[in-house]
C-alpha cells in the first residue's frame, strides 16, 4: 500500500488503482476490483491492518466490472454504505456494462474487440439499499458531509455515472474519465472506452475548474492536471485550424 498523504492511501491490483481515504471514524474506499480478485483485495487491506469493519463507505467511480466486480461481496461482508451516481443503478443491479460507446481508435478497437468478445464483463449484481447514498445530477448540491475536505462532482464521458472526488489541496481521484496507461499517441490521457468525447473534455475542464492539480486515475500513475489543460488547448487549436 502506498501513502499519498496523511489522508489518502492507494493500492493497485492488476491494472486498477484503489484508494482508501481516512475519515474521522473509519475509511472511505474508492472502487473495488474484478470479482475474482477478492482474496488479493483482502490481502491488501490486511497488509495495512485495516479490517472490513473499518470501511464505512464504498465510493464507486462508475459501474464497470474492474471497479464494481466484487462490490456485492464486499458489501455483504462489511457494514459499508454505498455511494454511487443514480445512472449506475440499472447496470449495478444487473451486473453488466453500459455498452453504449466505442473504443477511441481503430487500433485499440481491433486490439480489444476480439478480447472483449471472449471476456465476460458481467459480475454479481447488487441492489442499492435504503442506507446507501445515491448522487444525482452534477452531485454538488447533494455532496455528502463525509468529513472530506473536498467535493464530489460528476465527470461523465467514459460512462454516464462517472463521479470524481476533488480535494481542496488539489488531489483528484477521477476513476476512468482520464487514464495514464500505455499513452499511445492520440489516446494520451483519454480513456480507451468513450461514451461521449465532448463530455470527457467537459469533465476535464470541470476537474480543473474545481481546483484539480494532481490527477489520480484508476489506471496508471498520477499526473499533473496541467497535462489535461495542455491537451484541451491543443485540441481547441487543431479544431480552429480545421474550421478556418
Ligand atoms: Zn471504466
In a nutshell, what does this entry contain?
By secondary structure, the protein is an alpha/beta fold. It has helices spanning 38-47, 65-68, 71-76, 89-94, 106-118, 197-209, 226-243; strands at 2-3, 8-13, 16-23, 26-30, 55-59, 81-85, 102-103, 133-135, 150-154, 163-167, 171-175, 193-194, 214-217, 223-224. 29% of the residues lie in helices and 24% in strands.
Ends apart, CA distance between termini: 51 Å
Order of SSEs: EEEEHEHHEHEHEEEEEHEEH
CATH architecture: 4-Layer Sandwich
Under CATH, the topology is which?
Answer: Metallo-beta-lactamase, Chain A
What value does the Rg take, in angstroms? Answer: 17 Å
Indicate the low-confidence ranges by residue numbers. Answer: none
Within CATH, the superfamily carries the name Ribonuclease Z/Hydroxyacylglutathione hydrolase-like
Tell me which ligands are bound. zinc ion
Number of domains: 1
Fold blueprint:
Elements: E1 2-3, E2 8-13, E3 16-23, E4 26-30, H1 38-47, E5 55-59, H2 65-68, H3 71-76, E6 81-85, H4 89-94, E7 102-103, H5 106-118, E8 133-135, E9 150-154, E10 163-167, E11 171-175, E12 193-194, H6 197-209, E13 214-217, E14 223-224, H7 226-243
Parallel strand pairs: 4-5, 5-6, 6-8, 11-13
Antiparallel strand pairs: 1-2, 2-3, 3-4, 7-12, 9-10, 10-11, 13-14
Helix pairs in contact: 6-7
Bound molecules: zinc ion (ZN).
Amino acid at each position: 500500500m502506498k501513502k499519498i498523504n496523511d489522508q489518502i492511501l492507494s493500492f493497485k491490483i492488476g491494472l486498477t488503482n484503489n484508494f482508501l481515504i481516512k475519515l474521522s471514524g473509519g475509511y472511505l474506499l474508492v472502487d473495488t476490483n474484478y470479482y475474482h480478485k477478492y482474496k488479493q483485495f483482502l490481502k491488501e487491506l490486511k497488509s495495512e491492518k485495516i479490517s472490513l469493519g473499518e470501511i464505512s463507505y464504498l465510493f464507486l467511480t462508475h459501474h464497470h466490472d474492474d471497479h464494481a466486480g466484487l462490490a456485492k461481496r464486499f458489501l455483504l461482508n462489511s457494514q459499508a454504505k454505498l455511494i454511487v451516481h443514480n445512472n449506475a443503478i440499472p447496470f449495478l443491479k444487473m451486473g453488466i456494462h453500459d455498452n453504449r460507446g466505442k473504443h477511441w481508435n481503430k487500433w485499440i478497437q481491433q486490439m480489444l474487440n476480439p478480447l472483449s468478445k471472449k471476456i465476460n464483463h458481467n459480475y454479481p449484481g447488487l441492489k442499492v439499499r435504503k442506507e446507501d447514498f445515491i448522487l444525482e445530477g452534477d452531485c454538488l448540491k447533494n455532496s455528502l458531509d463525509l468529513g472530506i475536505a473536498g467535493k464530489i462532482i460528476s465527470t461523465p464521458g467514459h460512462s454516464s455515472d462517472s463521479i470524481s472526488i476533488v480535494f481542496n489541496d488539489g488531489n483528484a481521484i477521477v476513476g476512468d474519465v482520464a487514464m495514464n496507461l500505455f499513452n499511445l499517441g492520440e489516446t494520451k490521457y483519454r480513456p480507451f472506452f468513450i461514451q461521449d468525447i465532448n463530455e470527457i473534455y467537459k469533465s476535464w475542464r470541470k476537474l480543473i475548474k474545481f481546483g484539480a492539480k494532481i490527477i489520480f486515475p484508476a489506471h496508471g500513475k498520477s499526473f499533473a492536471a496541467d497535462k489535461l489543460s495542455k491537451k484541451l488547448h491543443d485540441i481547441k487549436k487543431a479544431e480552429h485550424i480545421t474550421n478556418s
